[in-house]
Amino acid sequence: MGTLSPELAKWVVDAAYILVAFLFISGLKKMSSPVSARGGIVWAGIGMIIATLVTFLAPASEHTLPTYLATNFGLVIIAIILGGTLAWWSGRRVAMTDMPQMIALYNGMGGGAAAAIAAVELYAGKSHSLVFTTLAVIGALIGAISFSGSGIAFGKLQGLIKKSFRFRGQQVFNLLLLASVVVIGIALVSGFNATPTAVTLFFVVALILGITMTVPIGGADMPVVISLYNALTGLAVAFEGLVLQNPAMIIAGTVVGSAGTLLTQLMAKAMNRSLANVLFAGFGESSGAASGPVTGTQKPIEASDAGVMMAFGQKVIIVPGYGLAVAQAQHKVWELAQLLQSRGVTVKFAIHPVAGRMPGHMNVLLAEAGVPYDLIADLEEINAEFETADVALIIGANDVVNPVARTDKSSPIYGMPILNADKANNVIVIKRGQGQGFSGIENGLFYLDNTRMLYGDAQGAVNQLIQAVKSVG
Questions:
Q1: For residue 242, what are the contacts with CB-CB under 8 A and spacing of at least 6?
Q2: Out of 221, 399, 408, 422, which one is annotated catalytic?
Q3: Helix (H, G, I), strand (E, B) or coil at 429
Q4: How many Å apart are CA 460 and CA 405, to the nearest integer?
Q5: I need a surface site. Which of 254, 347, 371, 471 has the fewest CB within 10 A?
Q6: Residue-wise pLDDT tens for the chain (473 aa)?
């Protein structure tokens, strides 16, 4: 720390890390609300900048930076510049529809970074205490699984992996892989076989385990998987922070790990399924899920008739889904909502916790279009209002409005909390065709007497609705 005495330098470093902890935790708290989320990101970013600077400036005796990095500041700075530039460029260019796979990719990068730190420590044969070596191995295992598993999640969301791969005895195979990597890890910790070959084998098996755990999971479960790997990445970073005695890594990893764990539990609860069911049951593949008993026929409606129905209504509740994101129709939907509001119609947006392909996906899309936060309500807030709604407009949503979840005990989604769109006086569903949704479950909502289907691309259909409302005198 320049000309500061070692005692004063240590005090400054410790004080800075306390400030970093405050900024991280406060930033996360602000991110819990759309109104303050942007400020929360800024606060957490400032905390990370401070933590990085302090890590560079801290005395080497404080062990806040490994020796192999402390002697290569130039390479570290180049890596930060390259990584920061690529992240800024990709973040500016990524479409909102591709945000889930970007989140999956960044989760993987975090886990991979934690695993890489552990790899350097293990390959170097550093003399750590038994506790720290154990933490390094656990962090390496979690980080490697998060890295390869997030890569598979990215491939599924990006459409590079178009089907789930399952084979007989797959769970047993995964358990054998887990047992193998645990045995190798114990050998590394005990020093019985801590050779570079053993370290390499440990990481290879861990990476394969991340792949084999994720490939059977269908796309409909990706929101839970993404939040799970987010939690694992945080835990891996926290463990490696303990090994390096770096408070910034410990704080950031613990905050991310705990938040990701809570989010994973909330997402699983919103689907009325346990985490074990998500990871091992194999539900979520578009061609393999069972369909509940559905009777009746889908009844089409013209955009002109649907527009008149909404224009003369008193309350319209809009339920967005992934189809809206794919069509990038959020701006048109907000234009429709504003047009209805100008006619005195009350308009609200209903969001299910697992709508879209990642937690908060629909909220982000609507915020990007300029929808005021007070018009966006979650399931608990809005469900009671569907009974007083003249029209429930469903745009690209499927399972989250499927009444089969209430009635058919044989359905994979039975017991899942849903938006009560079927209780509105009229339901208009914008859908490309008559096929099943992403999870492969037939939606009983589409066949109800009060439901009409407006077939077509979400953006084109909403544009037709806008013209229809405008034509109403």
A1: 132, 135, 250
A2: 399
A3: strand
A4: 30
A5: 471
A6: 445 566 776 777 888 888 988 998 898 888 877 778 888 889 999 998 888 888 776 654 444 445 545 566 778 788 889 988 998 888 888 877 777 888 888 889 999 999 998 888 888 766 667 788 888 899 999 999 999 999 998 888 887 887 777 778 888 898 999 999 999 999 888 876 678 899 999 999 999 999 998 888 876 677 788 888 999 999 999 998 888 888 888 888 998 898 888 888 887 877 777 777 777 665 444 444 444 456 678 899 999 999 999 999 999 999 998 888 888 889 999 999 999 999 999 999 999 888 877 777 888 888 888 899 889 998 889 999 999 999 999 998 888 899 988 888 777 778 888 999 999 999 999 987 655 555 567 888 999 999 999 998 888 999 999 999 998 86
In this structure, are residues 203 and 182 in contact, taking their beta carbons and an 8 Å threshold?
A: no
User: Can you tell me which residue has the tokens 């770096």?
Assistant: 246
Query: CA quadruple 170, 144, 357, 263: dihedral positive or negative?
Result: positive
Residue 399 a catalytic site member: yes
Q: CB within 8 A of 115, min separation 6: which ones? A: 139, 140, 143, 144, 147, 203, 206, 236
Torsion of CA 91, 92, 96, 101, to 10 degrees: -20
Identify the three-state secondary structure at position 347.
strand
CA distance 79 to 85: 10
Question: Contact at 8 Å (CB) between 205 and 180?
Answer: yes
